[in-house]
Protein: Extracellular calcium-sensing receptor
Amino acid sequence: MPGTNQKLLVHYSRFTILTAKWWSWWDSSLVELRDAKGRTGRRADNHQPGDKIHSRSNVGAMVCPLLLLLIPLPFVHVLGQSGCLLSPPTLTAYTEEGDVTLGLIVPINTISSRKVLSFKDRPAPPQCDLFRRDQYKSILALLFAIEEVNKDPHLLPNVTLGFHMLDSCFAEDFSLRATLQAVTGNNKNAPNFKLAPRICPTWPRLCNTCPSVSQVSYAASFPSLSNKVEFPSFLRTIVSTEGQPYALVELCKTFGWNWIGVLISSTDYAVQGGVVFKREAAKNGICIAYYETIALETISQRIPSVMKNVRGITATAIVLFCSPAEVSAILTEALQQNVTGKIWIGVEAWFTSPVFFKPEFWNLLNGTIGISRSRRILPYFPQFLQDFYPSRYPRMLNIQQFWERTFNCKWTSANGTLGPNIKACTGSERLITDDITEYNDPVSQYVYMAHSALFALANALHDLMACRPGEGPFSGGSCANKQDFQQWQLLYYLKKVQFVNTAGELVAFDVNGDSYGYFDILNWRLDGNLTSRYVNVGTFNNYMNSEQKLSINASFILWADGLAKVPSSVCTESCPPGYRKAPRTGQPLCCFDCVLCPDGMISTQINSIDCTSCPLDQWPNSERNQCLPKVIEYLSYQEPLGLVLALVSMTFSLMTVAVLCVFLRFRDTVIVKANNRSLSYVLLLSLTFCFLSSLTFIGSPTAVTCSLRQSIFGVIFSLCVSCILAKTIIVVMAFKATRPDSRLRQWVSSKTTVLVVSLSTMVQVILIALWLIISPPFLEHTVQSITGKVLLECNEGSSPMFYSVLGYLGFLAFLSFVVAFLARSLPDNFNEAKYITFSMLIFLSVWVSFIPAHLSTKGKYIVATEAIDEYQRIFSLIKVQF
Structure:
């Protein structure tokens, strides 16, 4: 590239990436405690969107995208306003030139000690000299990403990325000075920043040092960083911890745990998470059995009483929003108090911590389930490690210390000597053979996140430079000036960036600058040979809809004692179908009694709040969880009562036919003739049909039988009573017309008999005809008269017409009784009137008793009552006549 163009390119393209790591989560609690005592610091800056940031000499940072990995530490020293100027911390840096130079603030070393000084002592500059080898994997991932971008001919063609690396030393003061140096391009105090003498606020304030500079973090997960009012230009590829409480609630719902204990620390991280968990748990019907806050400073005094409470309450599942140190104290006390049978639910802050390395906790923690940010193996990173040698980056920060720690060797000193029994480092050792397992470990999340963060920035630059005039996103379709673009323009592209990384996953940011990542659901278990491991059993994505947020394979989970059955954590066991929940007074909604559904009602679901009524034609089963068709009840031939009535009907009808046959056989005898032969034939025949008509009351009723049963019997029995009445009238008239000139003699004939029988029967026929026309009987399914049964019966239709038919039969019987009573004084040879009187008296007694019996009887027995009543009426005639 020609020199002029190269200078111009370097001029517009020098920008900075800042990185630092949130190292000690539990240290943040100290920061927050101190911060709560006095948060007096103020931030002052004059950078506005659209301003350019000019650097030293001819190298100006026109854009300052920052890749921030922020660190909370207990305190920092700041510049005062007295005449004393403290010595600034010494920053170590390493630069690789390129067309585009990135500034990297990375955590490599840590401060060896901070002495407690009086106000009279002059603080010495802090010494950042303790090397942290475990953080080097993130640095190697950034170098790997830069090499990949430089090798890609399509991402940033004709542009080589360089970098300017600074050590944040896991300290806020180092990180802040490194940030300002990266932004301004020099190692002097920034003229636009003035800090009052105070304790520096906690680490999120560092993100607001340069509010107009694009900042991308791969490890700062504090939820408050999603506040775009306070942190307008902050983005991150790591998933915010804000989703953890939602994941925990979904876990409890999936396993049916609605009685949960919660132990939280006093840090902002835990307090905010606990508040969200309580809110979401209440929305989803999960009750909190106890909610205890434990501060690390007072844990030794509080933990015995807390664990006593934990042991005494029936909640099995316990959510721990705590740091590893607090979890260790909790488990130690649990061992002392023999608290067993609990399900520990972990959050990321401690779930993958060294707590699980302590064998004394293994029995307690076996089967523990928790959440952790998704871990992915970075493709091609193993090959990068295999080809990585110190000679490739000889001036890399702490490269020699890293090599010595990794391979347990020493570099040859200047005089070429080594101590005894010390292996010399050659620089040709290969990470792939000695350390590949650690550096390609999927549990190491920051490697993957750092790689994605750098590629997000590279893709934003690609989109900015690929803009065509007239198609741009700015005013009038304009594009950013590729040689002099402003920071808010790059920030626009960074917020809109969307690409698929080398692992095949989408990298993008939401409106809060958070990435669309997800959490893994892990199960920690002990294998048979007492080796422990994490098993990924599911994922949680808070950006999916409610039905798809949690995906879990419960069959992969092994709980305590190697059991596959999900343990229970409920205040009251679920009410089975057939019962309803009855809340207990003064207790949470998850504590209730199970009450059996009342008659006629069911519940079909577990933990039903109310029971529902069955349809009218159905009835609950014995478990009260299903409605079954009601038993249809009627007087059937199969049951004893129906069979007996049918046999009685058939037997006496045959006996009546037999008597009729005798009368026909001896029809010319004096006895038969004297008994009014023709009338006796009619009477016997009608009595036979009366017996047979009672069969219509037995068996399943139909519309036809309902219409015929009362009408046929009414006509036939009226004919019977009419025959008795006619016979009695003829006898009385015959004895009253003894004189030759008596007018009654002309009525003593068969014509009179026919006339009386016909007229008496015709009146009943007319009444029945009117009944069938006006409101005939009909078939009815009665569902409420008998519990659990549907009564199949005949409704008589018009009750007045029904009782009119019965009343007319009573009238005929009463008339026959009166006539027969008047004939009681006849000679003994003609004492038939006495029997008729007695017969009618019995008939009237049965008739009167039938009405209350008919009204008081229900179900199939009302039909039996009607049939028996008919038999009694018929027998009252047979006993005295034949």
